[in-house]
Amino acid sequence: MIKLYSTGCPKCHVLERKLDDAGLEYIKVTDITEMKSKGITSAPILEIDGKFYDFSQSLKFTKERQETKC
To answer: Are 62 and 18 in contact (CB under 8 A)?
Structure first.
């Protein structure tokens, strides 16, 4: 399961587009209280099977999935 923690910032929109382009299903979480409860202090963050990825790690993840899709 993939969760995208997003505040709607420009980086969040970029990551959302990358997830869509890679054909990945995800849940978008915009609840700041939930983010804080998980220790998230900046966005966007991807949570994949309980592991957290920052923006650059998330872009790498989506790029790898996009390449395997082709």
So the answer is: yes
27 exposed, middle or buried (CB, 10 Å; 0-12, 13-18, 19+)?
Answer: exposed
Instruction: Answer whether the bond into residue 10 is a cis peptide, omega within 30°.
Output: no
Q: What is the CATH number of domain 2-69?
A: 3.40.30.10
Residue 50 pLDDT greater than 70, yes or no? yes
Whole-prediction pTM value?
0.92
Please give the span between the terminal C-alpha atoms of the chain, in angstroms, as a whole number. Answer: 22
Q: What angle do CA 59, 60, 63 make, to 5 degrees?
A: 85
